[in-house]
Amino acid sequence: MSLEIPYAVCVRSDTGMNNARLGLWLFLASEAMLFGGLISAYVFLRTGSASGEFGSRLSEIPLAGFNTLVLLASSAAITFSVWSLRDKSFARHRLLLGATILLGTLFLGVKWLDYSHKLSHGLYPASSTYLAIYFTLTGVHALHVIGGIAVNSYLWITARRLWKKEPERLLSRLAAAALYWNFVDAVWLVLFLLLYVF
Amino acid sequence: MKLLFISRLAGLFALLIAGQNMAFSCPVCFGALDDPATNGMAYAIITLLGITGGVLAGFVSFFLRLGRGSRGVPNERSEP
Questions:
Q1: Per-residue pLDDT reduced to its tens digit, B47-79
Q2: Is there a smaller number of Cβ atoms within 10 Å at the N or the C end of chain B?
Q3: Which residue range is the domain that position A98 belongs to?
Q4: Could you tell me if residue A13 is inside a domain?
Q5: Chain A CB contacts of B54 below 8 Å
Q6: What is the pLDDT of residue B77?
């Protein structure tokens, strides 16, 4: 006996979306509050700091900018992946979702390089207020990227079986994953502007 | 009995006052308007209010959309 969750795939006429998408929007609202609190703490520490260690970091912009481009490319890839599935092009969808996973992993790799460079120079989270909030903000974001990669990888592995059995369910899942991934990308853009540019 | 209680209370207050070190309030608690910490707190509150306001506005717009959308949906639970 299996439990059928209503409106998991088909669209509700009152909300205009299925329950999976609605649930994800609620989750993203809570995520926005999480990052909002952390960004608020950053603003407090930066405005209240008299040491001058906060502010634009021109020397770090090339690496962080490259990472921004990588994440933007991965967002484009997952969006095209959803569109490919809507067009019934499963092979293209699989290729683009694979590219999304690889680009996300590349982002983490570059972040790892950045962290190891800082740590090897004795720059730990406990070294200064700036480094504490820097590691917290980018670390929490990196955890979200890891979560997104895990979900995208699960979809990539199980897609073929689901595509044959329930293509609409696969499309619903992928659309929800793409929404989350685009949110993570948007958060990084805010962090990039706050931590490196302004 | 009452006198004993009052004298003990007075003794406790005397101990608290005599044993107290010098205490300073932070600029935020003291209300120093020009202090960077006060400015930081103000900007942080504005940022958090902005983000919370954005999320709440999203909820309000969703419920308005829900209200508009539900007008056209027949009530399945209505009695025949």
A1: 999 999 999 999 999 989 888 877 766 665 555
A2: C
A3: 19-197
A4: no
A5: 32
A6: 57
Interface of chain A toward chain B, CB-CB under 8 angstroms: 13-16, 25, 29, 32-33, 36-37, 39-41, 43-50
Intervals of chain A under pLDDT 50: none
Domain of residue A92, CATH code: 1.20.120.80
pLDDT confidence of residue A188: 96
Structure tokens at A173: 């899942």
Residue among A25, A33, A40 whose CB faces B44 most closely: A40
In a domain, A87, yes or no: yes
Smallest CA–CA distance, residue B24 to chain A, in Å, is 18
ipTM value for the complex:
0.75
DSSP A70-111: HHHHHHHHHHHHHHHHHTT-HHHHHHHHHHHHHHHHHHHHHH
Chain B environment of A13 (Cβ under 8 Å): 69, 72-73
